[in-house]
Design a protein that fits this description.
Layout: E1 7-9, E2 13-15, H1 20-25, E3 34-39, E4 42-47, E5 57-61, H2 62-65, H3 69-78, E6 83-87, H4 94-105, E7 110-115, E8 119-124, H5 133-153, H6 158-183, H7 191-219, H8 226-252, H9 257-261, H10 267-274, H11 280-317
Parallel strand pairs: 5-6
Antiparallel strand pairs: 1-2, 3-4, 6-8, 7-8
Helix pairs in contact: 5-6, 5-7, 5-8, 6-7, 7-11, 10-11
Length: 318
Amino acid sequence: MPTRRIQKVGGSTYIVSLPKNWVIRNGLKEKDTINIKIKDKNLILAPEEIKLSFPDSLELKLEEHRESLLQLLYSLYYLGVNEIKITSQNSFPISVLNELEDFVSSLTGGELIYEDSKRVLISFFVSVKKLNRYQIFMRFLIILKRMITQFLEDPTKVDKIKKLEQDSDKIFHLFNRWYFEVNSGKIVEDSVMMELLPFYLRIIIRLEKLSDILSKLLTDGSFNDKETLDKVKPVFNFLLERADKYLDSLSDQVFDAKKISQGLKEYKSLKAMIETLPDKLQSFALYQVLSFSESSEKDVLSIFKLLKFTNRDNENNN
């Protein structure tokens, strides 16, 4: 293993020379940039990372992408493209225009800003560079709380619950855009956040799925019968209580894993109660709700434990 002596320059700067064979092997030359990463007591040097870059604006031809247009548009949104022009050799079919309207309305900051018979211009007036991942998490929890609270107060107002589910979709897409921009290097996050990314991704995917299930469950008339509703209320009250605990912890930035984990003991009894419901479709749906919650809770605990460990290390280093 090659070694180098530390040299002091100018009274306050320390330098060390790089091994010649490492410089040549990585195709580096004078004035090139290298990355420096500090991990514990180690200093890691690496050639400058190649960061994926995507144009700020892009043009698509409808005839070439008709079958996968929406999937492509979502991908471009995630990758940070801010303006998309779609052109057509013939007049746009009304079905396509309706799809594009639904697409922009499903996103935060999406607007269809120009349209004529053969051109459509979509723009995204949103920046995720200052997006706070805790705020995304909290927003999801607030939406889920409002869904349940709205249902318990007035089960007939299904439109409000469906609107909340649409809001959760927007948050989901916004998170995906932030996630892809972090991974492509357009947004720089610290090493701790990079380690937590897989946990956050799994939780957000589950929360989005949970909002879909809840929306369907609360708007299809499953619990219009008062006797059935009274029986399943403990499940909804339990979810409200868990959401409040998460929100308190995220708001105060107090990552107390023990406080959060107290809910795990209640899942078993609630699942047993659900299995006694006469309607098997209802019991299956509620069981899925609790299963999603239980899986997400385990990831939440992993995040809290890692953050608490990291904070303790930072305090010791200071």
